[in-house]
Design a protein that fits this description.
130 residues; mainly alpha; two-stranded antiparallel ribbon; 2 strands
């Protein structure tokens, strides 16, 4: 089921969101101070392309540095990418099949806005991180 959902997701939303995260990563890497934000954007791009079967959890040991980078990230790219998720969710929610995809899009907004201090794991690995 996850494979089917990931294929449908990639066709209708994932590809364009993936490209937008890559673009945000390139823009963030242009400035020295925002290179960690660019790296985070590239990391999230893989998750956004195929989100089903994976989960976002808190990264142990993240602290003030992660909080500061989250503020920088939100200003540089997080807000704009979150708006992209809302627009994509609205477009997907028009059809019955698109409603679960729209909900998945909305669930991606927290990691879009604040990616530092979080990590993406596979569903089977969740018990190891709890």
């Amino acid at each position: 089921m996850r494979t089917l959902l990931n294929i449908i997701w990639f066709i209708f939303a994932g590809f364009w969101l993936f490209v937008s995260y890559l673009l945000a990563g390139v823009v963030a890497c242009l400035l020295i101070i925002t290179i960690p934000a660019g790296v985070a954007s590239f990391r999230i791009a893989g998750y956004v392309a195929f989100p089903f079967g994976r989960r976002v959890v808190e990264k142990p040991g993240s602290g003030v540095g992660s909080a500061l980078m989250n503020v920088v990230w939100f200003i540089v790219a997080g807000l704009w990418l979150a708006i992209g998720h809302v627009i994509t969710a609205a477009a997907l929610a028009v059809t019955i099949i698109g409603i679960p995809m729209a909900w998945a899009n909305i669930k991606l907004i927290p990691i879009t806005c604040f990616p530092f201090g979080k990590m993406v794991i596979h569903e089977g690995d969740y018990a190891l991180h709890v």
